[in-house]
Amino acid sequence: MERLWEVEHPYYCNEGNYYAPGSEQPVARYRSWADFIAEEGDNEKNLNLLFRWDWRESEDWGHGTAFNGDENYRNGVLLLFWMGQRKGLYRWTKIEVCRADEPAVREWLQERLDHLASLWAPLVPQVPA
Question: Which pLDDT tens digit goes with each residue over 6-17?
Fold first, then answer.
């Protein structure tokens, strides 16, 4: 099984909204996965449509640091990219993560993938509710 921090998507997603001035960029930052879940973890999937994620540990991307062997060391950043469908608002979230967070992150992402796939029916197989 490929680990989330090993995935390199074929193209990047800009951490910046072209239409928002620099001081008004729609970004949320969280110091931990638990902080994110407490604040936004159960947000409405249609109003906050997650369309992409990236887990970064490499300094080459300007996020995270090298893994030091401790699964609980927050050396990564999870980037979540959203579309607020009602308002047409593109925003993103930066969450400091550790490798121990992966099972919870994977479960949460799977729910969003299932929702996204349901929007493309009947072109993709139906996902169980």
Answer: 998 989 998 988
The per-residue pLDDT for 104 is 98
Q: Is the pTM of this model over 0.70?
A: yes
DSSP β-bridge partners for residue 52? 81
Can you tell me the distance from the alpha carbon of 77 to that of 31, in angstroms, rounded to the nearest whole number?
9
Compute the distance between CA of residue 74 and CA of residue 70 in angstroms, rounded to an integer.
Answer: 9
Packing angle of the helix pair 102-118, 33-40 (nearest 10 deg)? 40
In this structure, which amino acid lies at residue 123?
L
* Phi and psi torsions of 22, nearest 5°: -50, -40
- Bridge-based pairing of strands 89-97 and 49-56 is unpaired
